Amino acid sequence: MPGPSDENRAPARKAVDSGDEINLLGLLFTLWNGKWLIALCLALAVAGSVTYLKYVATPMFQATATVVLENRQEQVVDLQNVMSGLSGDQATVNTEVEVIRSRGLARKLVSELSLLEDPEFNRTLRTPSPFSPSAIIAFLTGGDAKPTAAAILNKTVENVLKATSVSNARQTYVFSITMETTSPEKSALMANTLAEVYIADQLAVKYAATDTAVEWLANRVSELKIEVEEAEQAAKNFNASTDLISPEALELLNRQVKDLRGRIDEAGNNFRSAQTALVSLTTARDSGDMPFMAQVAEDPALDRIMVSEADNAPEAFFARFDQIVARVEQERDRAGAQLAALESSYENLNARIEAQSDDLVQLQQLRREAEATGTIYTYFLNRLKETEVQRGIQQPDSRMLSEAVIPQSKSAPRSSMVLALGMILGLGVGVTVVLGREALQNTFRSAEELADHTGARVLGTIPRIPVRKRGQMLSYIVNKPTSSAAESIRNLRTSLMLSNVDHPPQVILSTSSIPSEGKTTLSILMAQNLASLGKKVLLIEGDMRRRVFSSYFDMPAHVGLVGVLTGSVPLEEAVGHDKTLGIDILPSEQPNANAADLYSSDRFGEMLAEMRQEYDIIILDTPPVLVVPDARVAARHVDAVVFSVRWDSTHKQQVSAAIDMFTTVGVKVTGLVLSQVDPKGLKRYGYGQYGGYGGNYGGYYQN
């Protein structure tokens, strides 16, 4: 049988190791060990798929009609603005796909084929199941309101749309209209009818658009005709009510204004010159200086008079100067009058030009409006005639390329796909269950797992002893000394004795986390094995509360451990001897005091000291650690603590908590024992080649 160190080196079978790294070998082992569960899930999934295909699923049939979009139609009359063919670009193609899938065409299809009378689409005609969701809701709410005719129609249209699919072949103008129903004939009929309804709808839309265009154009032409007549009459009336001669006469007046502007400038210069001369003469006259006056007047007569020596020369000089002043005043007044006359004529001529210019602009605007209205009228009149011609030669933008044929085989459900999906689902569920069960596993299945989790040494593993009652266990061990259980106890004994080579343990405490982990059985087996080596062994029933030794040994327990600890009974009288195992046994009776207090007493230590002198090995079977504190108290007086962990039963948290409790009182657990190991379970979980209980080493044992 493999030793404990061999078991500790066994590779882990966990799919995920302590470092959160995926162990592929462990994952494969886990899946292989769960192969029957995976196979069961696969078989159930396949059976469910077959049942669905045979009894539940409704066969569906698909039929496809193809329609081609005519994007280049030859029209007799070019009428782009009123009615033109489709452009054929991708946006137009996508739009036509949505048109075919529209509720309007679906409603026409429902009416054309009387689908309101078909239970497949009008589900109100079906006999309702009492277990359907609608029936359950109606039962819970106290009644089911009868749907209106409009609601039934809308729901029928929705069901028809669900059965309809439209697709466009890439880089083409071809549409595929597919119908999927429970009847092959119905699918073909609905696909062909929808294609016909679509083509007819295109033609109807064009007719409606043409009629609308003709009506609108006729009304617009009538309105424009009236507007043209009104505009032409307004231009005539305005021309008759004004003095406007012609644009040429207005141009002549503009030239006259330009000439007057030149004459006014010349007359103004003359007037200013005369005024300046008059001011100079007046200033000289007022000065009385004849030479200065002669210089200013620039008159030869004044020069001659001024050099004359006649007596009346001064009077003649001033008289002549006054004549000159009077002449200059006349010239100034004449120039001023001429300037005023010219300016008056300029203003009058400007006023005429401005008035006639405004009239000309308004007249031209009226004539342009009349011409524009006439042009629009002519354009719309031509469009009206073209549209009236177009009304009789309309063509749809699409045509039927190929009609749908009645399908010979069902399209859904596809048996191969359903079975494949069922198998994939079954495999997935099986793998998930196996891996989930493994991930949720919170117990110990191998010595390595136990050692890795606790950090403590595993002394050995003890297989489950194949007996029904506790009393039969003793005869099994005695009668089968070469069994796997006996060999595992020998291995445990070796590991325990070698745990401290210099000072082999003499007082051994056996305990566990919780009850039913096999600690008492382990204590008995260790006592029997050590006794077989010729050692004097004492087995103490330290679990004063449960006292299960009576299930194994046929001896009275009127006096025992409690009596020895209280001093009422000597040790020699309390100890009994079992001839079958060859060991002494100190049973326990019902304590009058608390068991933990008895273990804490000085008498307990003194009792163990006395026993050390009398016995080679003392084994103390104590209660579980997580239940009562007895084991922790007693452990302070022993040499070794053997901790039993039940295979695939005790939770990891319980073991950790129990070991931590020993640590809090300063006691180190000597070693762990994985007890009650199921050899078949080891194989099932993939540990059979490491356990040695009937696996690769089964030939060494006689169980």
UniProtKB/TrEMBL annotation:
Keywords: ATP-binding, Cell inner membrane, Cell membrane, Coiled coil, Kinase, Membrane, Nucleotide-binding, Transferase, Transmembrane, Transmembrane helix, Tyrosine-protein kinase. Its main location: membrane. It is found in: Cell inner membrane. Its EC number is 2.7.10.2. GO terms for cellular component: plasma membrane. Residues 365-439 form the Tyrosine-protein kinase G-rich domain. It catalyses: L-tyrosyl-[protein] + ATP = O-phospho-L-tyrosyl-[protein] + ADP + H(+). Pfam families: AAA_31, GNVR, Wzz. It is a multi-pass membrane protein. It is an enzyme of class 2 (transferase). InterPro entries: AAA_dom, Bact_polysacc_biosynth/exp, GNVR, LPS_length_determ_N, P-loop_NTPase, Wzc-like_C. Belongs to the CpsD/CapB family. Residues 214-270, 325-373 form a coiled coil. Residues 20-113 form the Polysaccharide chain length determinant N-terminal domain. The chain crosses the membrane at residues 36-53, 417-436. GO terms for molecular function: ATP binding; non-membrane spanning protein tyrosine kinase activity. This is non-specific protein-tyrosine kinase. Residues 518-628 form the AAA domain. It comes from Meridianimarinicoccus roseus.
